[in-house]
Amino acid sequence: MSAQTPGRLATFFATDDDWEREGSISLGDWILGATVLVGSLVTLELIRGVGTLDSSHAPIWVEWLTVISGAVLLVFRRRFPLTIAILAGVHMFVSGVWVPMVMGLLPMQVIYFVAFFAGAAWARRRRDMVIVMGMITLFMLAWVAWQFAVGAGFDEIRESTADSEGSSLIGPVTAYVLLTTVINLLYFFGAIVGGQVSWRGARQRAELAGQAETIAAQSAQLQRRAVIDERLRIARELHDVVAHHVSVVGVQAAAGRKLLERGRPDDIAGAAGALGNVEASAREGVTQMRSLLGTLRDPASDADPDGPEAPGEGVRRPEPRLADLPALLDEAREGGLRLDYEGVGPVDTLPVPLAHSVYRIIQEALANVRRHSTADRARVVLRVDPSAASPYAEVEITDNGRPRHATSGSGLGLLGVRERAAVRRAEVDIGPRAVQGFRVRVRFPLEAAVVAASGAAR
User: Fold this and answer.
1) CB–CB of 289/241 below 8 Å?
2) Which of 219, 243, 260 is the last residue of a domain?
3) Closest by Cα among 181, 99, 197 to 140
4) Predicted confidence (pLDDT) per residue in 134-152, tens digit
5) Rounded to 5 degrees, what angle do the CA atoms 283, 288, 294 make?
6) Which of 11-25, 376-390, 405-419, 439-453 shows the highest mean pLDDT?
7) Is residue 310 part of a domain?
8) Tell me, what's the pLDDT at 1?
9) 145 CB burial (10 A radius; 0-12, 13-18, 19+)
10) Cβ–Cβ contacts within 10 Å for residue 364, how many?
């Protein structure tokens, strides 16, 4: 127990803490000093009026100087805490020797207590505070003991208690000494412990303020990051929408032009169908772009993408998901691409955000096939395996074509695929196949909730 005591005291007084409590001289310090000065002088003169100071042989100006100098200490107590504590100890000793009646006044005792309290509460370095305040306390206790042992303290106590019966257990002199010692211990240790508690409270408030600033900075950073992520998401969406529908428009327009060049009646009917597909695809592309632009104008409307549309906002639609995949595949088939689709596993259990990413990846891959490849056949496979060692959902798009000359794109489409995959920590495999054609494969890890939902669906 005794070996742990120094460690506990060091922890309580935070001797290894480098935090410094900043203190300055404020208007409030001057007001406090002036208030204490006036109260001390009034108390001094009232005590003089009742004759208590008759035994004091010091001049009045010395008594006033003692009170004034003590009150001045309070003004600088927070700016120079340990220096003021030392000066208060010296002031207490000197006034106790020369004008003990003035030193014993209640206002003066309050001045000393506040000075010692401030020394513990505002000291910049805690180790220095422990040393200085400990030395002041030991000196004052030694001074009290010296007064009893060497001075006339015992004689005065015997004279004042000569007619007192006292207690049968403790004599009057012993009781007086013990009582004086206890009062001084409570006085000095109360100031030091109270000041340390005040310092710890300020330390905690500073930590909370620092944490609040950190949280505010992180919150602002997260907000900026969220805005950037949302811009990237909308950029990907806009690219996918425009690329897909523009490629459809291009293919259908080219087919219609060739049919019109032939001039046969059947070809004219086919050209009309192709132009109808151009119109439908253009209308769908414009509708989806308006939906994205509506999101930009009113981000709060994304809170419930499946909710009812507000009046006058008929162009706003939910983001596409797996339920819209058949229409996307049919649109690619109408453009002349022979397209096969296969769903393996519980694909209907995919959450909406993941299903949306899968849809956009398929859309971008098929748009690239139409724009940059000579392929006439493609295959889309969506696999969901919640029972694997590492449950996953995988989408794979392959074709049988070769790169078409003079059709190199910006690369933003495949970049968008990689960004979607990175957001969900997915594996990406994009590139030419070993035999012929091109492949886009993305494998998403499934979360535990999705795996549980898949098991329940079975």
Assistant:
1) yes
2) 219
3) 181
4) 999 999 988 888 877 765 5
5) 125
6) 376-390
7) no
8) 46
9) middle
10) 23
